[in-house]
Predict the structure.
Amino acid sequence: MLSRLYHPFVLNSHPVLFMDIPSAEMTKYAANAMLATKISFMNDIANLCELVGANVNEVRKGIGSDPRIGNRFIYPGIGYGGSCFPKDVKALFHTADDYGYNLRILKAVDEVNDDQKHVMFNKITKHFGGDLKGKTFALWGLSFKPNTDDMREAPSLVLIDALLAQGAKVQAYDPVAMEEAAHVVDPKVIFTRSALDAVKGADALVLVTEWAEFRLPDWKKIKSIMIGDVVFDGRNIFIDTELAEAGFSYYAIGVQPRKSSATS
């Protein structure tokens, strides 16, 4: 019956595999854990790239051209979230612990991801010399990934808490997740009606979630309504030369900071 039901999908090269229940459950967890591993690996490499002067965007293209590796899930960023990857990674290594086996790689994947959620805050702190009190930060994106309102384990939550703890002000915009975010973030966070509203009077813009509407901003317009001149790109979606020409300093993941080329 199931074979007949799924027959149209099999025709599109999506096979139906029959296996025992423990193997089926392990397959589901192992698949998500493998994808999480690729993400944490790339984030670790991105952090090393910054230290040695390499550009992770070029490194990603290079290793992604190898068919043995592929170009999926090797984009650096500020950590994974959601309901599946964090839960499944933890479930696997805790299950292993119960059976007396130490899943060292997955524990490292989890640790790297936790650390990665603090990377952008560390860049912000360094740029402002450790003094964030009274500064206003515009956050673009709140959900853990685009096209969802899911706030579970979202990197934005870690960043918001860290900024507020240092006396900063947060103005945030997300196309669909603000209603859900209102239930889980500090009430001091100001939600705005648009991406442009979020940057009004801001000392810095922080890209957290790579929604499509954020990909081609009007940098001249943004520069005219911001107080500050710095952009922190947590998903490496902006072009550093464009930002420099528009008068912004630019920070991303796994690349060297780009200072403004504008003259006063």
